Amino acid sequence: MAERVDVRMPLLAAGAWLAGLAAQLLPGPLLGLAAGLVLLAALAAVARDRGRLTTVAAVVLVVAAVGCSAAVRAEQTATNPVADLARERAAVTVTGTVVADPRPVEGGFADRVLTRLEVVEVTGRGTTTRLVTRVLVLGDEPWAEVRLGSTVRVTGRLDTAEGEDLAGVLVAGTPQLLAGPGPWWRGADAVRSSIRDAVAHRPADQAALVPALVTGDDQLLDEELEEDFRTTGLTHLLAVSGTNLTLVVGFLLLLARWCGVRGRGMYVVGALGIVGFVLLARTEPSVLRAAVMGSVALLALGVHALQRGFRALGVAVVVLLLVQPGLAVSPGFALSVLATAGILVLAPVWRDALARWTPRWVAEAVAVPLAAQLACTPVVAALSGEVSLVAVAANLVVAPVVGPATVLGLAGGLVGLVWEPAGRVLGTGAGWCVGWIVAVADRGADLPTAAVGWGTGPVALALLAVGCVLLALALRPLLARRSTALALAAVLAVVVLVRPPTPGWPAGDWVLAMCDVGQGDALVLRSGPGEAVVVDAGPEPGPVDRCLDDLGVERVPLVVLTHFHADHVDGLAGVLDGRAVGAVETTPVLDPAGGVADVDAAAAAAGLEVRAASYGATRRVGQVTLQALWPLPTATTRPTGEPGESANDGSVVLLAEVAGVRVLLTGDLEPPGQAALARALPGLRVDVLKLPHHGSRYQDLPFLASLEAQVVLVSVGRDNDYGHPADDVLGPLAAAGAEVRRTDEDGDVLVLATADGPATRTRR
After folding, report:
1. For the range 257-261, what are the long-range contacts, defined as Cβ-Cβ under 8 Å and sequence gap of 24 or more?
2. CA–CA dist 314, 494 (Å, integer)
């Protein structure tokens, strides 16, 4: 007999979530109108059936409570003294506690350290105030040594911040340590450090993945590995999730039972395990959310699992939104709730259907990741712009080792505190397990159709959501029969393993491709069949690798990196992956140093040396004629000013000709460099212009117009924070007759050689 589900708590959760969304997204008048409509709907429901009075009243009460909580928190954050000083961009001295691990980040001009500070005292404009609020700290290198839980005093300048939980951004000076972290933080740090030490002797990817899997410590992860995990739907393993807590606490409960603990003692062990997990993984909102969702999974075990799980999930959502209403607009919160709901609602149905013709453990192993993935697919597509086709298979294949890897990694850290060699032995076991996960992610991401692109607009996402609902309804009868289930699996395997042709892509007469790599550059000059010169590689390996695959490029005789900013060089590994590469050339301006080191390391791993592009030399690379026009031989090879400041104007500028089409590739050349180029090459004319610096408003517009390009290419990321490209740059060029193509609107762009001059074809 099917278990009946009490939907009252899920209904309260839905009301709380909608209230949180409305409070975060709607302006005041619309919010008031929405509140009125909710009240009218409640009155109408009660009028139709007075038996619903209790449920309706509870929903209205929860909606009002979450809305009021959001309003109070927003008011407290926006109107406290720190926020007022941030709006004035005031110089202040603050005292507070570090509440997040300092994280080094690469900036456009200098490397900085990010952390969060819970401010308890602020002095600014001659007034000292005691309060409790949080700020984002942007500090220099000394901040990297400040440990979580430390109390510090620091002087800096405040600026405004985005996010309902932050009163401001503090551009901070050197911190003065007032007190170190408490014993609980020191203990958690010791365990985290011991986990890293237990796997330090393993290969780099294993040494990075074990801490990420156990505690969410992802600072050592390689970007290419993260990209592979995104493509294969394994990203949840790189962050703290409810699965982590379930595995860790479940292991502790089994250990306690083996030691003879029974009854209420098991609840004590479970509670201590949850608290210890939170301290180990840090008390950030994502960790607290994961702890709550993991607790829901634990409560759902045993008899009446669906009823208990649904009730616990509803309570968890309501409590979390009451405490932190901002979670309503958090993608991580949505993914956690949807995955848990999918596992509770869909997985048992599909498991029972599969169990008609497969062993129950196989049915369970297939149904759980399938339910979680399908429930989360629309949100994942909204975030990444793609739908993974290998996610279910990848999660199924790695599932047997996730538990052992997590438990062995944690055990290695704990045992290593007492006896380091024993900790390394356990760490070796964890490394073997995650080695399998890395192999699955790597091989899965390389499959021809591991993921398909999907629009992030409302219509595309609505269609995807409807499709997921229809698939969820249709899967039960399909999975219940061996023939239809195996046929579905076979169709999916064919789709994944055989890259479907894209009609007309690439066109046979293409000479230049501009790859859609987001906010960055990656240009491809066709030098022969299956062969191309690549100019810049974008900010990540995945997009440029995908673009070259789609173009059928197997050999790259030359890679030119115009300068060393991350949005031009960080995707180099994607160009090198699986292709025969002849040489890597760069600008002689070695700035910023971090980008130089990354390029050298990636090239060395492929057995290549990096050399400077030769100024003025004209040469042929297959069907491409190339000449480097900039920088001049007199350019300094060392950085001037702040790190990264001299990089843009040190960009390699290339004049290329392919099949009679003249192309000017400009990197991120700034107006001074453009003006110098105009003086050095008067009368220069081209057919195609790659607009400098993603269409930034800072251009030498007379020089760009004088080139008389028929096609202007703009490589730019959608919804970027820089205002690229600027309308006052594109407008005059378009008015002069140029055809403007931009990756944020057109996707990948091909330039074709025709009898009437260059033409374009777009992917989107």
Report:
1. none
2. 40
Residue 736 vs residue 332, higher pLDDT: 736
Residue 592 φ then ψ, to 5°: -80, 160
Taking a C-beta distance cutoff of 8 angstroms, is the pair 641, 589 a contact?
no
- Comparing C-alpha atoms, which of 299, 288, 295, 330 is closest to residue 25? 330
The residue written with tokens 């301006």 in the block is: 589
149 contacts 164 by C-beta, under 8 angstroms? no
C-beta of residue 580 within 8 angstroms of C-beta of residue 606: no
Q: Are 204 and 222 in contact (CB under 8 A)?
A: yes
The pLDDT of residue 757 is above 80: yes
Q: Is 584 helix (H, G, I), strand (E, B) or coil?
A: strand
DSSP 8-state secondary structure symbol assigned to residue 711:
E
pLDDT in tens, 117-168: 999 999 988 889 898 888 999 988 889 889 888 999 999 999 988 766 788 8
**What count of Cα atoms within 13 Å lies in the side-chain half-sphere of residue 160?**
6
Give the phi and the psi of residue 251 in degrees, each rounded to 5.
-65, -40
Q: Any residues with CB less than 8 A from the CB of 512 and at least 6 apart, and which?
A: 523, 524, 525, 526, 658, 661, 663, 688, 750, 751
Residue type, 616: G
Q: Report the C-alpha gap between 488 and 466 in whole angstroms.
A: 20
Neighbour count for residue 165 (Cβ, 10 Å): 16
Distance of CA 686 to the CA centre of its chain: 38
Q: Is 644 left (phi over 0), alpha (psi -120 to 50) or beta?
A: left
- Decide if 564 contacts 587 (C-beta within 8 A): yes
Cβ atoms 590, 637 nearer than 8 A: yes
Work out the angle between the directed axes of helices 305-323 and 8-25 (0-180°, nearest 10). Answer: 30
C-beta of residue 146 within 8 angstroms of C-beta of residue 104? no
Residue with tokens 């993991």: 294
User: Which residue, 635, 550, 619, is CA-closest to 583?
Assistant: 619
| pLDDT confidence of residue 645 | 55
In angstroms, the CA 337 to CA 319 distance is: 13
- Distance between alpha carbon 263 and the CA centroid of its chain, in Å? 43
Q: Which amino acid is at 119?
A: V
Say how far apart CA 464 and CA 9 lie, in whole Å.
27
Using alpha carbons only, what angle is made at residue 245 by residues 240 and 251, rounded to the nearest 5 degrees? 140
Query: With contact defined as beta carbons under 8 Å apart, do 415 and 188 qualify?
Result: no
Cα(668)–Cα(357) distance, rounded to whole angstroms?
60
CA distance 14 to 315: 11
Structure tokens at 188: 């958690």
CA 220 to chain CA centroid, Å, is 16
Q: Report the alpha-carbon distance of residue 539 to residue 694 in Å, rounded.
A: 13
Helix ranges restricted to H, 658-712: 671-680, 701-706
Task: Tell whether the model's pLDDT for residue 684 goes beyond 50.
Answer: yes
E-strand stretches of 507-660 = 510-514, 523-528, 531-535, 555-561, 580-581, 584-586, 610-612, 618-621, 624-630, 653-658
Q: Is the pTM of this model over 0.85?
A: no
Read off the pLDDT band of 110 (50, 70, 90). low
Scanning 26-126, the segments in alpha helix (DSSP H) are 28-48, 53-79, 81-87
DSSP E strands, 51-199: 91-98, 103-106, 111-124, 127-139, 151-159, 168-172, 176-179
410, 276 Cβ separation under 8 angstroms: no
Answer with the residue of higher pLDDT: 259 or 501. 259
As a whole number of Å, the CA-based R_g of the chain is 29
Crossing angle (nearest 10°) for helices 391-418 and 183-199? 110
Which residues face 513 on adjacent strands?
524, 750
Q: Is residue 199 very low, low, confident or very high in pLDDT (cuts 50, 70, 90)?
A: very high
**Chain center to CA of 370:** 22
Residues with Cβ within 8 Å of 49's Cβ and at least 6 positions away in sequence, in order, are: none
Tokens matching residue 10: 């899920």
